[in-house]
Amino acid sequence: MSQKLEKLIDKKGLRLDGRKPDELRSIKIEMGLSSNADGSAYIEQGKNKILAAVFGPRELHPKHLALQNRMVLKCRYHMAPFSVQERKSPAPSRREIELSKVIREALEPSIFLDYYPRTGIDIFVEVLQADGSTRCASIVAASLALADAGIPMRDLVVACSAGKVDDTIILDLMDVEDKLGTADVPVALMPNLNVITLLQMDGILTLEEFEKAVNLALEGCKKIYELQKDVLRDKYVSVKEEVEE
Amino acid sequence: MASVVTRLKQKQIIQLISKGKRLDERGLMDYRETKIEQGIIERAEGSARVFLGKTEVLVGTKIETGEPFPDTPNEGVLTVNAELVPLASSTFEPGPPDENSIELARIVDRGIRESKAIDLEKLCIAPGKKVFVVFVDVYVLNHDGNLIDASALAAVAALLNTKMPNYEIEDDEVKIKSGHSPLPVRRHPITVTFAKINDKFVVDPWLEEEQIMDARLSMAIDDDGNICAIQKGGSGYFTPEQVFEASKTAKEKAEEIRKKLKK
Description:
Chain A is of the alpha+beta class. Chain A has helices spanning 94-107, 134-148, 175-180, 207-244, and strands at residues 27-31, 39-45, 48-59, 72-79, 119-129, 158-165, 168-171, 183-190, 195-205.
């Protein structure tokens, strides 16, 4: 209980890591690191370190899951045992199974699934170190990994969380803010269509606060989207240079 | 694969919804007939059965003593599990819980936990050592759509019906005494689920609407009209405006349904 007395926002209005309420953590993204996957991406967001890899389109296993009219998307979100303070058992937890589902459903609308009937794509997300809002960072990386694999997509999917701590609506929650704060709202966006593909919330918010939090998260998404595009562009410029040499 | 008849019916559902009507003659924002029965299973500490039209969900609660989580030594433990019982639908298979039943359980759990429905501190027997553990088991008995709202409602109804054993502490040992007192339930979260079909929202989708929906959105609303949990499901999307509009409707609908709960 003594933990709850800890102030998450100081007198100057700054957060424990010195950020302003509407400030993102520093983000570093890299693409195409894995030589075995068809597409891959790595993201560091604050202390989060997450790898995403894509295999496919390829034959589905087991085969009876294949659909005649479209591709099947599979996703596994998994946390390394050493990614959190107390060792996490490597067996998939109920939380990881739920997150695998919501991440898949956040990415699905962006992919032209009917281009590759009877096939499947596997997305593997490994959280190497977790520090809050990992599902959002996972979506940012997984969407880039899909683009890296050359999967035809309507748009990149970008995600960011917002929430409430000490009566302030804040952007991009880190672990301690998620645990001790009042609410956490992860949001995923396809910016070109301006549509939300993932929305969850836990905590307590009034309708007005909820609207404010979602709008703040959407602003965060748009900033991260610019980073995503830069990384994608840089990757292709470097590929082009390689080809021309 | 859907049969020809189903395809025609699905087309009809979509056409009707675009005109603001539904195949079962409900309005877009109407729930099916909702029935709550409490105290069905005598062996359980608490129980409730909820009907949403033909959807039927039974929830039983059990209370045991156990250890608290290290980060909340003064609080009892809440555990929610959901079983998609094979007799409820041809699409449910026996075996370990799949992602759908895990998601269902976690949505029900989140609504109760985040609204702080149960006063968990009152379930503490010896801080850091012994607390009461409340098991909420959701049993889907017939699936005709919107299992989320039916399960969440049945869970709260069952908790309201739950009896806690009386106890005393003798020489550091917990002795269960005869008699019981009600579980300290102080909030009544209600979950309202929307389906997006052909860019329109309907509340409380039945099975055939769920089969053609693009996405669903579930919002748990507490007694003060605040949102305490949200889950988007399905591979579609919403505009931000649709989400905000839905949150206002959810608040109204939750109030309506809460009146049906016997507190």
